[in-house]
Design brief:
- The protein contains 18 helices and 14 strands.
- α17 links the parallel β13 and β14.
- The protein has two domains: about 150 residues, Rossmann fold, CATH 3.40.50; about 250 residues, TIM Barrel (Alpha-Beta Barrel).
- About 45% of the residues lie in helices and about 20% in strands.
- The N terminus and C terminus are likely disordered.
- Strands 6-7-9-10-11-12-13-14 form an eight-stranded mixed barrel, surrounded by five helices. Strands 2-1-3-4-5 form a five-stranded parallel sheet, with helices on both faces.
- It binds ligand C2E and magnesium ion (MG) (2 copies).
- Ligand C2E binds next to β7, α8, β9, β10 and β11.
Length: about 425
């Protein structure tokens, strides 16, 4: 580890050789100026851990400096202004409590994470001490470090410039860099998989995977949503056409944003995609989130009714979390209600959630709508839903979202087995959207 060259400008320019490169003597890819402002400093005496943390952080768009040297640590804090620090509590030359004192002396205002193999109470005591010293304590990382926990933590600290990100999103849409995964939907009555939900994915070149929850809102607020939806629909309908041609008549659910419904041309655009791929709109279910579903009632009624006339089915997504009234649910031409996963996931241990799930299933049946439960994470939940008369179930217990080409073997593999078998993790499809 080099300690001597620490002269850096107050602000690091990413297209120049960075401090991180000079400190650890490795090539770190340069990234777009301004897309992010994320610098991680790790101090740990176990280099293997430093490398894992560094690789994980870099895959999420951080620049990372790792060291086991307290002097390098202190100077790096002072000169490089890391936005996040991960510190080992127990090291041969210095301990974490001394480091917290140093950080407080520097008036460090970034996030501080403490990591250690010591017992939880020691970690918690260190956290409290850091807080008492006025530091922004960001959490605990127990060793051995779980990469998923580390990723989750770093993502929550990551700063991303919205402007830069929306430019990148526009590029990703224009160049087909988005892709789809499909989550199988299980027909509880028939005991087999009869449909899928298409879920869009974006792997940003510097920031790694970005969740749709983050970039859909961005697309909605920057006017990109209609081109994104067009890409998604084109890809999902084309995939549906391939499955149908292969004699697998799966229903394909596609998420539509509330903003899409404001566009009167939507029904014709979607119909065109179906024509182009020889797919009957009846096999396509359009999922609209409840909050969006209920705005601009007249215009919505116009677009939704035309979609229904063309044969598309409509689903009200995340039901129970928005602001719809039951009257609107009855008046809008929906075919299906998706019970929000916040109720489904807790319906076994929380009687309130269970009552809500059962009432929605009952309500759907009485209104002549199909009920779909999302977020089914275990057998007990699936059993309870089947018992309540829920029509369809979807969730990690049945299958995570998977690549399009894995759907046929998955569905065919389960045709003989009434109970879901495969609960393996999801993956990253690379089939482009559009
Ligand atoms: P959604 O439509 O309610 O989709 C279900 C979300 O729950 C998906 O998250 C799915 O991966 C996740 N999920 C499924 N089963 C389980 C489970 O058992 N446990 C847990 N914890 N989660 C489960 P994802 O893919 O991150 O999508 C999030 C949201 O982003 C979607 O919620 C949808 O509202 C939106 N979205 C996704 N793709 C698109 C798209 O192509 N267009 C639009 N407009 N929105 C999309
Ligand atoms: Mg959905
Ligand atoms: Mg949902």
């Amino acid at each position: 580890m080099q300690t001597e060259r620490l002269i850096v400008p107050k602000r690091v320019h990413w297209n120049q050789t960075s401090l991180a490169q000079r400190l650890i003597g490795e090539d770190i890819p340069t990234v777009n100026d301004g897309v992010f402002d994320n610098r991680l400093l790790v101090i740990d005496d176990e280099m293997a851990i430093c490398r894992i943390v560094q690789r994980t952080a870099e895959s999420l768009g951080f620049e990372a400096v790792v060291t086991d040297n307290p002097e390098v640590f202190t100077r790096t804090v002072r000169l490089w202004h890391p936005t996040v620090i991960i510190m080992d509590l127990k090291m041969p030359t210095i301990d974490g409590i001394q480091l917290l004192r140093i950080l407080a002396g520097e008036r460090y205002d970034g996030h501080v994470v403490v990591s250690s193999g010591s017992d939880q109470r020691v970690l918690e005591a260190a956290m409290r001490l850091g807080q008492e010293r006025g530091l922004r304590m960001g959490g605990l990382l127990a060793k051995p470090i779980r990469v998923d926990k580390l990723r989750e933590m770093l993502v929550s600290f990551r700063h991303v410039s919205k402007d830069a990100l929306s430019t990148d999103l526009a590029d990703a849409i224009a160049t087909n860099a988005l892709f789809l995964e499909y989550q199988p939907k299980f027909d509880c009555g028939r005991g087999k998989y009869t449909g899928v939900e298409a879920l869009v994915r974006w792997r940003h070149p510097q920031l790694g995977m970005i969740r749709p929850d983050e970039f859909i809102v961005l697309a909605e607020t920057t006017g990109l949503i209609s081109s994104l939806t067009d890409r998604v629909v084109a890809a999902a309908v084309r995939q549906a056409g391939l499955w149908h041609a292969d004699n697998m008549l799966l229903e394909v659910a596609i998420n539509i944003s509330a903003r899409d419904i404001e566009d009167l041309s939507l029904p014709d655009r979607l119909q065109q995609h179906c024509f182009d791929n020889g797919v009957d709109p009846d096999a396509i279910i359009l999922e609209l989130t409840e909050t969006g579903a209920m705005r601009e009632a007249v215009q919505m009624m116009d677009v939704l009714t035309r979609l229904r006339l063309k044969g598309f089915r409509l689903s009200i997504d995340d039901f129970g979390t928005g602001y719809s009234s039951l009257v609107q649910l009855e008046r809008m031409p929906f075919s299906e209600v998706k019970i929000d996963r916040s109720f489904v996931a807790h319906m076994i241990e929380n009687s309130g959630c269970r009552v809500i799930a059962e009432i929605v299933i009952d309500l759907a049946r009485k209104l002549g709508l199909k009920s779909v439960a999302e977020g089914v994470e275990n057998q007990a939940t699936l059993d309870a839903l089947v018992k309540s008369g829920c029509d369809m179930a979807q969730g990690y217990f049945l299958s995570r979202p998977i690549a399009g080409e894995k759907i046929a073997p998955f569905v065919r593999g389960h045709l003989a087995a009434p109970a879901p078998l495969d609960r393996t993790g999801g993956d990253d499809n690379t089939a482009p959207v559009g």
